[in-house]
Design a protein that fits this description.
The protein contains 10 helices and no strands. It is mainly α. The longest helix is centred in the N-terminal third of the chain and has 47 residues, at 2-48. The chain is elongated and about 75 Å long. The chain starts with a helix and ends in a 10-residue tail after the last helix.
């Protein structure tokens, strides 16, 4: 009888320990959403009772209503396309230059001596501090907006690619040489694949920076785009429109990060993961 009791107690203990991770994961999942939902409820309640004036901050319900109106009228999609085109053009230039400079500095000692000091100087200059100078050089059209985004996104790509190239395991290069691979074959089959994880990290950072710079760039006499909507909303004290545009900026940033993560998951499928699923 005692043996059966001990067996039952041990079985029950194992059952509780086996069920514990599930309860923990469920509570953890719920806990992640608890504080944002509570914040929204407090925000809505404060707006309903007049504690938060509409001119100061519109209620979440008003923001959602404005979002649907702007989407149905086509105002938000058309301006979003303009902002997306600016980011795409700036990223195309900035990432392209970052790749080229990273390859030159990473693969050549002479290239490092020529490029890296200039890039370190560039790193200490805030991109947004160049706004007045870019306006003088390029006017107030689309060029300074694209140029600011391009200038801000060069360094993250350059630095991570340069670091990835210089961090390649020398034993892999020795093995490639022993198989008779030429210099360019070593770069293509060994160096670049080894530097790819670092490059993707730099690309993720560059995409995030491009969204941040876009917010400021679109304040330069914009006639369309999310920044144009924010400026108009500020003039008419439409905090609901301002919040809608800020939400779109946040979604753009999250979407860009998700895109690079997806590419990373497919391109680096060969890399072992140290994080348990």
């Amino acid at each position: 009888m005692a043996v059966l009791t001990i067996h039952n107690l041990s079985t029950a203990g194992r059952g509780r320990s086996a069920a514990a991770p599930r309860r923990f994961s469920l509570s953890r999942f719920g806990g992640r959403w608890l504080s944002p939902v509570a914040l929204l409820l407090l925000w809505e309640a404060g707006s309903r009772i007049g504690l938060i004036p509409e001119r100061t901050l519109a209620a979440p319900s008003a923001v959602l209503g404005t979002l649907f109106e702007m989407v149905l009228s086509g105002e938000l999609p058309s301006n979003l396309l303009v902002s997306f085109a600016r980011v795409a053009a700036g990223l195309l230039i900035g990432v392209g230059l970052g790749l080229a400079l990273g390859l030159v500095a990473g693969l050549s000692r002479a290239g490092e001596m020529a490029v890296d000091p200039l890039m370190q100087i560039k790193r200490t200059i805030p991109a947004l501090a160049l706004t007045p100078l870019f306006i003088v050089w390029f006017g107030i059209g689309e060029t300074p907006k694209v140029a600011l985004i391009a200038f801000a996104t060069i360094f993250p790509v350059y630095l991570n690619l340069y670091s990835g190239i210089r961090s390649v395991d020398l034993r892999l290069l020795d093995a490639a040489k022993s198989f008779g691979l030429s210099r360019w074959e070593q770069i293509w089959h060994v160096v670049l694949p080894s530097a790819l994880p670092s490059l993707l990290v730099g690309l993720r950072y560059a995409l995030s920076v491009s969204i941040l710079v876009l917010v400021v760039a679109e304040q330069i006499n914009a006639s369309a785009g999310l920044g144009y909507l924010i400026n108009n909303a500020r003039d008419f004290m439409r905090t609901d429109i301002i919040v809608v545009c800020l939400m779109v900026y946040a979604i753009l940033g999250l979407g860009a990060d998700w895109l690079v993560r997806t590419v990373e998951a497919r391109a680096l499928i060969w890399r072992p993961s140290i994080v348990e699923q």
